[in-house]
Amino acid sequence: MRYRVLRPPYCYRWAILLSALVVAIAAMVSAFSSADGAPAQAPAPAAKAVATTPDGLVRETAREGKFVALTFDDGPDPVYTPQILDALSRAGAVATFCMVGTNVARHPDLVRAVLSRGMRLCDHTLSHDEDLSKRSEQRVTAEIAGCWSDLQVAAGADVPVPYFRAPGGIWSDPVRQIAARQGMKALSWSVDARDWALPGTAKIVETVRQSVRPGAVILLHDGGGKRTQTVEALNQLLPWLVAQGYQFDWPG
Ligand SMILES: [Zn+2]
């Protein structure tokens, strides 16, 4: 009789205890699998954002992290290239110089100076024809190979030219493919400092400061016109980038 009275509550207690145990085990499993708020099935660390986009253009730094890649186009220039090299050396920065063949032929010493400071070369065609993408394959080949050959003459056979950049950043599949056949990566950018428009030093500084982010490839110019604004902007931007914790890398 006693049992009859007591059994149902005992049954309930066991049921409650069993339920509590199940809940506790479930909670422990959940706690272990979601430590630090990570999802139970934590994915592998995010792979680096691909440096080469599906269109085959490089717009990111080679390394992941707080890096930027500086690139200077349209030189070498006897006035501005040495000033830019000095500014880069003071900041311990590296950069890639996209040179125009006609300037290379005029100033081969500057190609050697760029290399001696630990910088990299980029082929920016023989004559900076912004309609290159409309030209025949033969003409495109001559423009790309012509600059490449001038760089070899200036700095010695087999000097590395890891990049090619199309004039004006205007690409076509043949342009990209011919550069690739020469062993060069198609170098684009992700931040245009717009120094080519001569907007004033302050504006160039502001544009870069507002647009820069880890992995950015920044477009600037050491040739193709008066580049005083670029040099002055660089002298402000380099210490600022360093103060922000940026390091300097190559395009990927
Ligand atoms: Zn250019």
UniProtKB/TrEMBL annotation:
GO molecular function: hydrolase activity, acting on carbon-nitrogen (but not peptide) bonds
InterPro entries: Glyco_hydro/deAcase_b/a-brl, NODB_dom, Polysacc_deacetylase_ArnD
Domain NodB homology: 66-249
Coiled coil start-end: none
Source organism per UniProt: Amycolatopsis alkalitolerans
Biological processes per GO annotation: carbohydrate metabolic process
Keywords assigned: Signal
PANTHER family noted in UniProt: 4-DEOXY-4-FORMAMIDO-L-ARABINOSE-PHOSPHOUNDECAPRENOL DEFORMYLASE ARND-RELATED (PTHR10587:SF137), GLYCOSYL TRANSFERASE-RELATED (PTHR10587)
PROSITE patterns xref list: NODB
Span of the signal peptide: 1-35
Name this polypeptide is given: Polysaccharide deacetylase family protein
Superkingdom assignment: Bacteria
